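<discrete_fold_record>
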Amino acid sequence: MLQDRAIVTVADNSGAKVGRVFKILGGSKKRYAEIGDVVVISIQTAEPRKAVKKKDIYKAVVVRQRKPYRRNNGSYVSFDDNAVVIIEKQGKEMGPKGNRVFGPVPRDLVDRGWQNIASLAPEIV
């Protein structure tokens, strides 16, 4: 469950390390983002000589959250950090900006329509 000004780690190899959420897409009254939601982030720290620079604005998909996430079967899943994967400007059709995803991602991403991100992840929980 992420809201405005939340600090998140970037879980791909686009060059960004840390980002700050400043908008949650999906309606003017939408306050919190959960797994699979699209947010707009500003890059806070980035690796040198990569495609993504500090202060850049990108759309990203939430792939991990600290708050326990309830599944349809009644179980709960939570992670150690809040993490996002940067996507191209066009949305779901374009897919992620990087070509690797670090760390585990939940299988709920596939249900939300992000098969291309789940396929790049090393582990699906």
